[in-house]
Here is the input.
Amino acid sequence: MTADRDNAGREETSRPVLSVQGLTIQVATPEGPKPVVQDLSFDLRRGETLCLAGESGSGKSMTALAIMGLLPQPMARIASGSIRLADGSELAGRGERDFRDIRANRISMIFQEPMTSLNPVMTIGRQLTEVLLEHRACTPAEAPSRALDLLRDVRITDAETRLKQYPHELSGGMRQRVMIAIALACNPEILIADEPTTALDVTVQAEVLELIRVLQREHGTTVLMITHDMGVVAEMADRVIVLRHGRQEETAPVRNLFAAPQTEYSQELLDAVPRLGQAPARPAPERSRDVVDVAELCVRFPMRGGLLNRVTAQVHAVEGVSFRISPGETLALVGESGCGKSTIGRALLGLVPWQGSIRIDGQQTAGLSPKGLKPIRRDIQMVFQDPGASLDARMTVGHQVAEPLVIHGLASGSELWDRVEMLFRRVGLTPDQMDRYPHEFSGGQRQRICIARALALGPKVIVADESVSALDVSVQAQVLDLLRELQEEEGLAYLFISHDMAVIDQVADRVAVMNLGQIVETGSRDQVLRDPAHGYTRRLLSAVPIPDPEHTRPPVLPREGEVGSPVWPLGQGPARLPMAEIAPGHWVAQGAPLKVA
Amino acid sequence: MSDASIPVKSDPSRGGRGSVLVRLLRRPRSAFALIVILTMVGAAVLAPWIMPYNPNNQMFDGLSLEGAPLPPSSEFWLGTDLLGRDLFSRLILGTQTSLIIGVLANGIAVLLGATVGITAGYFGGWIGGILMRFTDLMMAFPALLLAIVLAAIFKPSLLIVALVIAMVNWVQMARVIYTETRSLAQREFIDVQRAMGASTFRILGRHILPHLVYSIIVFGTLGISTTVLLEATLSYLGVGVQPPTPSWGNIIFENQTYFANAPWLVFFPGIAIVLLALSFNLLGDALRDTLDPRLKGRH
Here is the structure.
C-alpha cells in the first residue's frame, strides 16, 4: 500500500487522467432548479485513488454519475463546468451515443448493490462476453477464453463453473467480483467505485478492497472511490475530497486529512466516526435479576420443494441460543449477514415462530396466544434498521407515536396527546412536528420518532436491530447518545443487533458473536473485542477497516474450513457446539459450526 | 375495531374535506371532470323537470313524412329516434339508469373485490389460496357469457343488472388488491404494528387500507366506464335494462342499424358515455394525487 502512494507521488507531475473544473449539477424540483453539486474541481492523477467522502445528500454519487453521463434524465443536468479526459476530450454535454465509447473503454463504474447491477436471467459468462463484444475488445471466438481470464483475474475460485452460473447462485462478494471483472473487461483508465462494499459483510469488504488495490497495481487503473465510510477512506485513498451539501469542503492527502483536518466539518466528521478499541470503559451494571432470559431458542424455517411441494429441508436460522440481559445492560449480537442475529430479535417480539424458552421480566412467553402476549409486549419493543420503512407513510407521526398507547388502552383524549408531546420532547423533537408525515423528516429524525414510539409503552427492553446502520456517522453518534441517555435514566435493557464492530464497541456491556445460528463466543465487551478467543471472532475483528491511514491493517485472517450453510435436510441439524468458560463470564465454543459433509 | 379511533387533534395544516375540493378545483383537468360529473348527476336528479318531451312518447311529428327519424333541429335538439321519440329527453332519463348502474354495480364490484383481495393477501395460507383460485376461475370464465346466464336466470331489473355486472367485474379489483396487500403485509411498518400487539382489524383498517385507497380509486373509476359499456351490451342482448326504459347503452343499440342515415342517434349517447368515463378517470387520478401526503403541494 505504501508503494502505491509513493508511485502516485512520483507521477504527480504527469497529466491528469481526468480533470473536473467548476462542475455544477442541478436537479429540477417543484421550486425550481436546485444545485446538488456546486463548483466542484479536482484532478485525477494517473494510478492514484481519490476518495469522494461525504454523508448522504453531499452530491458524491451525482458527481460520479455526471462523469459517466448517467445523470437521471431529465431531472438532473450539468449546469456548468467541464469534465475532461487526459487527451483533452470534453465529457460534459456529450450525447448518449458518444458516451458509449467512453464507458467501459475509458471509464468504468461499479455500484453498491451487485445483485441489481447484474442481469438475473443471464449467465455470468454471457454478461462478460457481451461487454467484450459490444466494445469490440475481442473476436467472438476469443470471447469465452477472455471471459475466463477476467474471472481468474478477480480471483474467483472455480472460474469455469462460475461462467455457467447465474447471479443468484453466487454470494454477494463473488457478485461484486464479477462486477469488477466486467468493469475492467476493456481495460479502462478510470474505475469509479460507488460505495462498492457498503452492502457487503465486513470480511468480504476487506477482501474486495484488497482486490481493488491489487488490480489497480497490476493494471495501473486510476480509482475514483465514493464512500461514506471513513475507515474505507483511510484504507484506500491517496487523496480525499470531503463533500458537504454539494460543496467541496476540503481536499487533502489522506494522511493530512486524518492528522490535521483543515475545516471544522472534516473535524466533526472524523470525530463522529466510531473507532474500534477506543470506546470509553463502561461501568459494569449490577446483575440483580434478568429482564430477558432466553434459553435453547431455536428458529427453523421450512423449505419446500419436490413432489407436492412438501417440506424437504429446513433453514436452521437460530439453533439453541441462550442468553440473559439484566436491567440497564446492553447485550450486543454480532455476526455476518445470515447468521441469525435479526431472527433472534424477531423471535423475541413474537414475529416468527420459535421453540425454546423466552422469559421477559420473569414471564414465560412460549405457547402464549396473541391475547396472552399483549401485556408482555408492553415490556419489550423494537427499533428497526430503516426508519423510513418502519413508519407508515400515510399517517402523521404524532398518530404513530400515539398508537401503542391507544392499542393498549393506556391513555385517551387530552392525556394521550400530552403523553405524545412528552415523548417527542424526550427524543429531542418538538411537539409542533407531530402533525407532519414521515417523508418530511430526515433519516435521523425518523429514527427518533421510531424510538419515541418504542418508548411509548414504557418498555423494560428494547431490541435495536441495526438501528443506526442506515444513518450517517454524525447522526449515528447523536442517536447512540440518545439511546445511552435513555438507558441511564430509565434503566432500559438493550439487545443491540449490529454488524458494525466499532458501534458495538461504543454501546455494549456484553457481546455475543454469532455464526450460522449459534453463539460462538460471548463475554464482556473487553473480553470479546480486546481478547477474542474464537477463530471466527478474530477473523471478524481483523477485517474491520480502521479509520487511520497510518495503521496498516494486517491481511484478513483466512476462513477456518469451508463456508457453512444453515440449510439441513429434514431430520438433520447442525451439531451443537460445546461452550467452555475460559475466563469468568467469557464463554467460547469449541470448534466451528460447520456442515459435516 | 372500537379501539381504532384516535381522537383527531385539531390540525391546521391538513384541513378538512373543503381543502381537498379546493385542490381538485384548482387543477383544470379535475375541475372539468367534477363539472361534467355534477352536471350529469344534476340531470339525472332533475330529469322529470328538465326533459322537454315525454321520453316514451312516440310523437307523430317526430318522424319525417317518409318515416325517417329527424336530425337535430331547434324543435328536437338532438333529433328523434326510429320511433319518433325525442332523443334529448331519452338521453336525460338514460343518465339516471347509467349513473345508477355505473355507481351501484361498480360500488359492489369494488367492495367485493377489495374485501376478497385484502383477506387473501393479508392472511395468505389456505384462505388466500381458496379465494384466489376462485378469483382465477371467475377470470377464466367469459364475462359476457356469465352475465347473460345470470341475467337470464333472474328477472331483469335495474338492481339485478347492477348485481350481474358487479359479479363479473370484481375479479380484476381482487387481483390488484391481493398483490398490493401481499407486498404491504411484508413491509416493516406492519411488523412494528404486530410487535406492538395491534389487532388484525386495526392493522388492516388503519395501515393496509389507507395504502390501498389509491389503487381502489383508480381502478374503481376505470371500472365505471367498463360498467356503463357492459350495461349497454347486456341491454342490446335483451337481458339488460328493459325497454322502454332508456339507458345510454340501449339507445345506441336500438338505433345502430340506422347509423349511416341517422348518425346522431349513436353519436350523442356515445359522447355521453365517453364523457362520463373520461371524467371519472380524470377525477380518480386527481384524487389519488391530492390524497397522497407525499405529493401534497406539488401541483
